[in-house]
Amino acid sequence: MSKLLDPKIMMAIKDLSLAAKTTIDGFMQGINKSAIKGPGMEFSQYRSYQPGDDLRLLDWKMFARSDRYYIRESEIETNITLRLLVDASASMDHQDGDFKKIDYARYLAASLAYLGNLQGDIIGLNVFREHEVIALPAKQDFQHLSRLFYQLEQITPAGKFTAADVYTPLYTGGGSSELTILISDLYQDTNEIFELLDVAGTMKHEVIVFHLMSRNELELDFQGYSNFEDLETGETIQVDQSAIRKAYMSKLQTYLEEVKERALDKRIFYRMLRTDQPLDTAIRDFLNQRKKLKV
């Protein structure tokens, strides 16, 4: 797998569009070429003719070679609508080493958007921050992709996650099925994030949640710090990390299991991602879920 999928190397590329292209090019070099297909009709396999099959699907060249009747099956690749939901609440400003959760989120979203555009998908972006939703309508062209990259570059985390009464009107009405991807650390004041996922679920969208966690919060390893501030409320507490680590790890594990179970109960694909790990896992998950979506 390309080293350019390493977040530290990827985030050294300041141009977001170049970083996304470099990431996807590196990813595609490391996987079976057949895993990524563009729009159109692609040959899949032959199977024996069965009574009732459409005779127009018979492969006469194969019959000439084998004197047997075969049906040529093809796989139809269809475009989908891909909607990226990015959490821009203040907790996404959490930092581990040289970069923040929001950095990982913007590069992940850019990479998925670039790959979706490459496959002919229609792509939209919603950024959630207290009291507002920045919405970029779903379109398919490189100009639109450039606007999406620009919006991702402008994200400045602030406040809490958008309240449900603000974003719910954006998701009312009909529309075709989408592949909805939420990139978030899932920190919420009440239940606003899972209410958003409920809305997407009722609209019959396929949903992926990429749950971002940093190494230092997963391991409670904040070297040299004893005072901790809640980025969204501003509250501070004093902590002896070594004294509470065992209890913290136990509660964290319980929390992660509950979040995963809650997502699975809603038929949401859930993946926890460490922000110091390469993006290939997330990209593979996107490709797998894309194949399942029926337009």
Automatic annotation (TrEMBL):
DUF58 domain mapped to chain residues: 45-252
InterPro entries, A to Z: DUF58, vWFA_dom_sf
UniProt name for this protein: DUF58 domain-containing protein
Taxonomic superkingdom: Bacteria
